[in-house]
Amino acid sequence: MRNVRRYQRIVFLCLFSVCVIAPIIFVSHRLHNISPIGRKDFIEDISGVKHRAEALKLSSVQQEGGDGLKEPNVIVYVDEGFGSSDKIENATEDFIDAGDRPDVQNNGTGIRNSKEDQKIQQNVVASISHGKTNPIRAAVQQNRNSQSSIDKKVKEMKDQIVRAKAYLNFAPPNSNSHFVKELKLRIKELERAMGNAKKDSDLSRSSWQKSRAMEASLFKAGQVYSDCSAMATKLRAMTYSAEEQVQTQKNQATHLLHLVARTTPKGLHCLTMRLTAEYFSVFPEERKFDKQHRVHDQSLYHYAIFSNNVLACAVVVNSTVSSALDPEKIVFHIVTDSLNFPAISMWFLLNPPSKATIDIRRIEEFDWLSPGHELALEKQDSHDPRYTSALNHLRFYLPSVFPLLNKIVLFDHDVVVRRDLMKLWNVNMRGKVNGAVEICQEEGEGSFWRMDKFIDFSDPFVAERFDPNTCTWAFGMNLFDLQTWRRQNLTAIYSSYLQLNKRGRVLKAGSLPIGWLAFYNQTVPLDKRWHILGLGYESGVPRAEIDRAAVIHFNGVMKPWLEIGISKYKGYWSRKKSLTDNLSPPKYQ
């Protein structure tokens, strides 16, 4: 009996040993066949079990503390068919109501935690990386899309207004239906809500709501007026009408600009009236200028100005005399009309230029200037009287105005002299009449003018005698050889060209186009530094060129004595004017 029990124990122990040893041997054999990468993944999986357990514990704590703040699921996109317009409209309204304030979430609980935002961004990047997409490239593309859509809603609202106005044009005239009233109300509300918004961030919450209301009204209008071809025709007509209105506004702005350019500022008008009153208050013998015996002296430097602007004449004379190395040899000849003759004379009687000689004359004194000349100027049909004035065209009668002179420099009254001009008188005229700066250097420059822009070369008389590609030149500062002028009889040629407009509109108004014809092949080009143009309009003249120039010209409508003058160029004129302010009589307040 004892032997049987002993054998049972031995069998039991053997079976127990087999059950214990066999799994150990089997498992060790399997571990021996596992690769190093497999071991690493196996260990990470085991460690992940521990981290997930800890995460579950943390999330369970958060859920217990936030049971009352259940946030609804935000559906970014669900493709349930294209025809579900009601769902799309409701989703859009919810998005607008909750999304026009960036600091409030859909549940209205407040600002989202920055850690949650970081976690969401990490998940998005991770999902992109699984799709084999470069996350940096995706971020750049997202940034571009956000910049391009910064004013998307503003443009959409403007399009809604245009569409609503187009639908209104389909309604019968003087229609007062409920639908017309609704559209007019929506347009007014949306325009008031938009205001001057330039980007979506400038829009208020009410503007988003007005946009939704407008879209609903447009949807009903689309059902009423479903003819697309009629709508396209109406939009084209509206576009054409808008373009015409823009062009009309541009023409009106140009007209007003030219109107301001030819008006007299109040201060200048009061100064002229004051000087005129003082001129007639003095005795006739006190109205005479000194050194009149030098007026016809051929050994002196003679300059001429034809103007009725007392302040402009004062700046030209003052700048020339103050820049001259030898002002005693300067003689200024000023020709004006009878209306402004007393004021200009009184100015220079009160403020005589140091050592220089002044000669002032009336245009009415020239008996040889026939009335037919003024009639020919009036036929030029210009809205600007400056272009057709006798003073402007008196430059073509210089040999008759100054019969005892052989050479003269003619200034426009809108120039400022910044350098001594003595060397200008030594320019070799090469047997020609006019010395001027050319303005045909390169197309695109501010002072580039072509002859065919001012002269009609379709006229056979013009086309046979002149080349439209000939280099042009400018008035403003010109040196004239009066002896050669008399031999060439250019004044008679000018008079014949003045009659061209009798056959049609051949020449534009002004002295420049007819001057190009009268002095054709009679002009000597001067160095560009003698005369810089373009300070009377936005020409972009570099400051370095202005500083090097001997004469700067405020050609254009924005004269420096007007309020519309260009501020960055006004200083060149004001500095010369300020030298005479201390001598001029006080202005009216």
Describe the structure.
Its EC number is 2.4.1.-. It holds the Pfam family GAUT_1. Pathway: Glycan metabolism; pectin biosynthesis. It is an enzyme of class 2 (transferase). Belongs to the glycosyltransferase 8 family. With 589 residues, the protein is of the alpha/beta class. The protein is built from 21 helices and ten strands. It has helices at 2-33, 36-65, 85-99, 114-130, 135-148, 152-170, 178-194, 205-224, 228-261, 266-279, 310-323, 341-350, 371-378, 390-393, 398-401, 460-465, 482-488, 490-498, 511-518, 543-548, 567-581, and strands at residues 301-306, 330-336, 357-362, 407-411, 415-417, 434-437, 477-481, 523-526, 531-532, 551-553. It has a seven-stranded mixed sheet with strand order 3-2-1-4-7-6-8. Strand 1 (301-306), helix 11 and strand 2 form a beta-alpha-beta unit. Helix 11 crosses helix 21 (567-581). The radius of gyration is 45 Å and the shape is elongated.
Shape: elongated
Strand content: 5-15%
Number of helices: 21
* Counted beta strands: 10
Q: For the report, how would you describe the main beta sheet? A: 7 strands, mixed
User: Level of helix content?
Assistant: 40-55%
Tell me the distance between the termini: 147 Å
- What are the segments in which pLDDT stays under 50 over at least 5 consecutive residues? 36-117, 124-133, 582-589
Strand order of the largest sheet: 3-2-1-4-7-6-8
Structural class: alpha/beta
Mean pLDDT figure: 77
Radius of gyration: 45 Å
InterPro entries: GAUT (IPR029993), Glyco_trans_8 (IPR002495), Nucleotide-diphossugar_trans (IPR029044)
Organism: Trapa incisa
Enzyme class: transferase
Main location: Golgi
